[in-house]
Amino acid sequence: MEENTINGCELLLIGGSAGSLEVLIQVLPRLHKFTAFSLVIVLHRKSTDDNLLEELIALKTSLPVREIEDKTPLEKGSIYVAPADYHLLLEKDGFFGLDVSDKVNYSRPSIDVVFQSAADAYGKGAVAVLLSGANADGTEGLKTIKAAGGRAVVQDPATAEIPYMPQYAISHLTPDFVLSPEEITEFVNGLK
Amino acid sequence: MTIEDRQLELLINDMYDTYGYDFGGYSRASFKRRVDRLYNLDGFANFSEFLVKVRTDEVYFKRMVEEITVNVTEMFRDPSFYNVLRTEIIPTLATKPFIRIWHAGCSTGEEVYSVAILLQEANLLHKSLLYATDLNPLVLNSAKKGVFNLRMMKQYSENYMAAGGKEDFSRYYSANHGFAKFNEELSQKMVFSQHNLVSDRSFNEFDLILCRNVLIYFDKDLQDRAITLFDESLSLLGYLALGTKETVKFSPVQRKYEQLRKEKIWKKIR
Hints:
Chain A is α/β, with parallel strands linked by helices.
């Protein structure tokens, strides 16, 4: 996977909906410790979710999983999970922002909102991965990431439990990579 | 099309110079997103056209304030928070001869009506006063009426029950033409007025201040200003309630407050 090695990643985003948690459960335990970037996970989730998702993710990795609150600073080497019932944004001074404005694509958090905000704050330093789902969320965000010089990765729809979301992305933009869950693991481990 | 950072700063300066509204302390990422949205929605040819419109058309400016300030709210949002209010905070207020509550950034009033219901069920509403403020006069007008969309009532009723409510929620409103009008009994003790956390001062002393999911729109300096303003407006042993992701930690008044377990409720202890 030499050709998949990407330098200059400061922020890795993984967005997904139905069928994505299974992918994360596969990928997370196989990730090597990273120091160059922060990993932000954005999954569609119930508005009433407490910290169940954070706890589940923390069980699958030995890397630090940190809670996001208003103005939490991003630390490299850490994993963050977008909280339930808020839109997640990235400020240019290295902090998270939160917002409870209207749902986007019937979702809050919306993947598009995070990706677009990351594109604005991180430009070519942002790498975004879109996983399985039954919703069109994420496609506009990936377009913005690419336009700002960042990289767009989409899960191979053939490997997705619900292929709609990655398929929708592929039919509306040309991702830099289309990868299976195993390849996503390798890809992330190769990020610098 | 998205607005560039320097254009956003121009817009912020112009809004201040022309109308006295200061958005300089708003968190940029969220603020920019909402300005971008409006800019695209209203189909301006370029940024200068947009800027001229904002500067010269006050009606448009008002629409803009309406659009760029977030007014999404619901009754009994985060039921567990209301459960703590009902079982732990309100009983400690009950001993007071008179209860003063401030809803800072009340938006369209859903939270004010929720708290009024809790007070009425505790038989305390008659000796309470609920001050509800917002910077946006349009949402205050709407809040005063106590009229909400009927299709929201199913969810609000579920929230109410999850928050420990025992009554039939529908007894609090009458349904008419797709709207739910809340009983005037509830609004009798409410006072609505315009107040801007950016520029206005403390105007009374309160036993409980609720400001939930408002500080997230402010940068650190403006958050500190607002929290200091709340501190100046709280009686000793009064409570400050913030949103589930907000905190008084790191603010200048932190040492005067004690957090109620992991709840986003702080008691003023000195």
